[in-house]
Amino acid sequence: MSTDAPLFYACLTEPVGPDAAEAISTHFEAHKAWLKEHEDDIFIAGPLLSDSLEYVGRGLIILRAESLDAARGIAESDPMHSSGTRTFRVAPWRLHEGCVNARLTLSDRSHRLY
Predict the structure, then answer these.
(1) CB-based burial, 58-80: b 16+ in 10 Å, e otherwise
(2) Around 80, how many Cα atoms within 13 Å sit in the side-chain half-sphere?
(3) Alpha helix locations (H) across 1-114?
(4) Which class would CATH give 7-113?
(5) Which residues contact 23 (CB under 8 A, 6 or more apart)?
(6) What does the CA dihedral 17, 22, 26, 32 come to, rounded to 10 degrees?
(7) Residues 113 and 102 sit within 8 Å (Cβ to Cβ)
(8) Structure pTM?
(9) What is the separation of C-alpha 42 from the centre of its chain, rounded to a whole number of angstroms?
(10) Strands 110-113 and 102-105
């Protein structure tokens, strides 16, 4: 296995308890602000969905960090985690394959990422 491929850290996050929806909504704006504040640390992030494409509270954040401990520190600073609303687990993740395409249309200031 190649060790020259980029190394990231996968943070799997999920709500604590069956009644977490209210706590999640309470901390959601702070969480969004945290995401913006940590844009340089986040490679990609988003919710995990059920088989029927419903939001079930779980999420995935792929972090850029110098070490596993640094990635855990970043994850711990998320208000969802520091408030105890969500638990998380961080694991090293090596990127081997993928492609990102972007289209920017200057005339109407639109963009598309696919």
Answers:
(1) ebebbbbbeeeeebbebbeebbb
(2) 28
(3) 21-37, 68-76, 79-82
(4) alpha beta
(5) 15, 16, 83, 85
(6) 70
(7) yes
(8) 0.82
(9) 7
(10) antiparallel
What is the DSSP secondary structure assignment for residue 107, as one 8-state letter? T
Tell me what the pLDDT averaged over the chain comes to. Answer: 91
Average pLDDT over residues 32-45: 94
- Rounded Cα distance between 62 and 45, Å, is 6
Class of residue 16 by CB neighbours under 10 A (exposed 0-12, middle 13-18, buried 19+): middle
Distant-in-sequence, close-in-space partners of 79: CB < 8 Å, separation ≥ 6: 27, 30, 31, 34, 85
- Strand pairing report for 42-49 and 55-63: antiparallel
- Region at 79 (left for phi over 0; alpha for psi -120 to 50; beta for the rest): alpha
Q: Which amino acid is at 97?
A: E
Rounded Cα–Cα distance for residues 72 and 56 (Å): 23
pLDDT per residue over 45-93, tens digit each?
999 999 999 988 899 999 999 999 999 999 999 999 999 999 999 999 9
Q: Are 27 and 83 in contact (CB under 8 A)?
A: yes
